[in-house]
Each structure stands twice: as structure tokens, then as C-alpha cells.
Amino acid sequence: MKSQEFFKKFLIYNASGVMCTTKEELGKVLSSSADAVVFKTATLQPREGNPEPRLFWTDEFSINSMGLPNKGIDYYCFIAPELKHFKKPLFSSIAGFSEAEYFELIEKVNKVKEFDGVEVNLSCPNVEASCVFAYDLELSLKVAEKLRKMTDKPLGFKLPPYTERWQIKKLADGFLKIGVDFVVLCNSWPLGCVVDYKKESLVIRPNQGIGGLGGKFFKNIVLGQVRLFYQVFKGRVKIVGVGGVSSGRDVYEYALVGANAVQIGSRLLHEGVAVFEKIKKELEEILREKGISSIDEKVGKVKEV
Ligand code: DHB
Fold first, then answer.
1. Which residues contact 67 (CB under 8 A, 6 or more apart)?
2. Could you give the residue numbers annotated as active site?
3. How far is CA 254 from CA 40, 217, 220, 301, in A?
4. CB atoms < 10 A from the CB of 84, how many?
5. 3-state SS, one letter per residue, for 186-217
6. In DSSP terms, which residues pair with 57 in a beta bridge?
7. For the chain, which terminus, N or C, has the lower number of CB atoms within 10 Å?
8. Mutate which of 20, 120, 126 to test ligand 1's pocket (most atoms within 8 Å of Cβ)?
9. Which atom of ligand 1 is found nearest the CA of 54?
10. How is residue 158 annotated by DSSP?
11. Strands 117-121 vs 90-94: parallel, antiparallel or unpaired
12. Ligand 1 center from residue 63 Cα (angstroms)
């Protein structure tokens, strides 16, 4: 499968949603030390998203209820060729409001040869009145099977965090059978709430002040998800870890439990694109101290105690 070509070597890049909505932002990520870029999740039509304030972050965490603000799939298909000169992988990200919309979106992505892969977002937490798609496991597998038949591009699914082992097993077995190339673990924790005790108020306006939580605390939640998926995939479906990555050490931990790549979300929001260089330097230092030539040697090699 084609994605195996990308993820043969460990990649560090942005999480969809952070610095990737406009051509200018995508260009900034691509000009940095990031190894690839994933675009903002695109819908069929452009969207303004939810009312502001809809994003809040500190050093420790972020909460968002963006509501999929994006310029629409046609814009992203149009600008992809203009970003190819950076010679880095370009991942499209798509989200439909129905099964049919996912199919329509992938047909548009298929027509753009400059997209090297597609991350299907089955886990947006913030669109009111619709639930997180990938909590319906049967429906998700049905859509994944059809999408697999519709595209030869490397195909991955961005999932929400699960709370039961059987949910992960069922999806992982299904994805393996379908021939999915990669999964992105995980989207933010969907039902977070942050309160400012001084002002005695919520910090975001949409959806009763409830939104997706990410940041440092999330790392240990996602490490568990990566480990459980890896135990089924055993390298046959690649894993992109996303959640609380802010240092070289975090990347190392993700690799040990089975990630072939990591994306940076909250920390990119906080530090800007310089974060990629910082994290890579820290990772190199760890590798040097341990006398290891490449992080790839460590994927899935965590020891049991
Ligand atoms: C949004 C939030 C997400 O966590 C995501 O994966 C996609 C979209 C949003 O609200 O825009």
C-alpha cells in the first residue's frame, strides 16, 4: 500500500486545524522543519464556523469549538498544486455531514494528483446536532470500505478517543481487513469544559461552552489508544499520534507504543512553527544519548514491566 512509503520514515507535522486553513498558513508550515502538512478539514461548502470566542489555550491545554471553519474543498483542491514546490507530502483532510458527502469529497480529492494522501475526519466534536461520526462503529466501517474502493491514494481515518477496548479492537480489525493505510489518533476529547473562576464564566461561547480538549494532559490518553491499535495492526496499518506532543521526549514515547508519525496541535498554536525545529533537536539529542541512529528502530518497541 502506498502510505507505507511515507511512513517508512518517521514524520512530524501539524495537526489538522492548526495553521492550515489558508494557503499562507500552509506555506508557513511547509517552510518550517515540518516533514509534511495536513490541510484544515474541508467540507463541501465553505463555512464560517461557530461564533467566537471559540478557541482558548494555555500552556497546559486547549479547548476549541471551531465548528469546521474552512474555505471549502474546491479552494483546497485549487491551491494544492501551488504548494507542491516545497516537495513535502500534502495530506488533504475531509469531513462530510452525511455518508454521501464523504463520497463526493473524496472524488474531488482524487482529481488532484498533488494530494499525496487523505485523512478522513470521522471525529469532529463541534458541529451542533451531529454526533461524533466514529462513535458509530458499524457506519464508520461501512464508509471506510466504500472510500477504500473509491481511491488509490493513501487513505487514513482520524478517530476520536475511545473508552472501551472492544471498540478499538472492532475498528482496528475492520480497518485491517478493508486495507486502510493509516489512522490518526486522536481527535480532541469531545466534551470538555473550561471555567474562568475569576470571571465566573465559560471561556468559549458555542455549544454551551463545551468543546474539544487537547494539550499536555491528553498525551497519556492517546498513548493508550496508540498502544491498543498497534497491538492489532502490528505495523500493517500505520499510526499517526496526535495529542499533547510538546517535546522530543513525547515523540519518543509515541514511537515506543507504535506511532510512525506525530502531529502537533496545541503546542503549534502556542509556539508557532518554530516548535518543529525545537522538537526535532530534542529528539536528536535523545537519540544521541541513547546511541540510536533513527527513531524508526524504536517503533512499537516499548518493554513490558
Ligand atoms: C474541528 C475540530 C476538530 O477537533 C476537528 O478534528 C475538526 C474540526 C472544528 O471544530 O472545526
1. 47, 49, 50, 54, 126, 127, 128, 206
2. 124
3. 23, 14, 10, 10
4. 15
5. CCCEEEEECEECCCCEECCCCHHHEEEEEEHH
6. 62
7. C
8. 126
9. 10
10. E
11. parallel
12. 11
One-letter amino acid identity for 275? V
**Ligand 1 cavity residues, CB under 6 Å:** 16-17, 41, 64-68, 121, 123-126, 187-188, 212
CB-based contact 30:82 (threshold 8 Å) = no
Name 101's Cβ contacts closer than 8 Å, sequence gap at least 6: 43, 44
The grid coordinates listed for 210 are 463545551
From residue 78, how far is each of 23, 108, 154, 184, 251 by CA, in Å?
A: 10, 10, 20, 25, 33
The x, y and z cell numbers of residue 214, run together, are 487537547
Centroid of ligand 1 to alpha carbon of 84 (angstroms): 25
> What is d(CA 41, CA 188) in angstroms, rounded to the nearest whole number?
14
The three cell numbers of residue 224 are 493508550
- List, in sequence order, the alpha helices (H) in 35-136: 73-79, 99-110
Residue 35: Cβ-neighbour burial (10 angstroms; 0-12, 13-18, 19+): middle
